Amino acid sequence: MDKEYSYNAPHSDLIVVYTKEGGFIGMRQKIFYDSFTKELTFMDERSNTFRIKKLDEDKEKSIRNEVEDDKIFNTDQNYSPRQGSADFISFGLFIIINNKSHSVKWTEDSLNVPNGLSKFSSVIENMASTS
Questions:
Q1: Residue 117 near residue 72 (C-beta atoms within 8 A)
Q2: Strand 49-54 to strand 100-107: parallel, antiparallel, or no bridges (unpaired)?
Q3: What is the pTM of this model?
């Protein structure tokens, strides 16, 4: 007779994947955070840069708070660029918090983008900076 075993394996209850790419210079950046490893990873394919930072509980909490304050889960999934625009920077954000996920894409040339998206972008980019 088979028995089912249940246990609480450690897992990630916060995952953030943020991308920023395009524009005239062909930017390709990605920031990834995983609450299981507590590591914030920054990659810039154009300049061949790669950094990993450990985040403490306060920094992780500030990411969670920012997601809530900026109402990220209330945003649409896509904010298209204005028709006829070119050479713009595109952004992508995928977030999982406590098994709830949301993804959103927008550009610097999109209309009606909630201010919270640019605010969250600034927060996560500042966390990934070298300072």
A1: yes
A2: unpaired
A3: 0.86
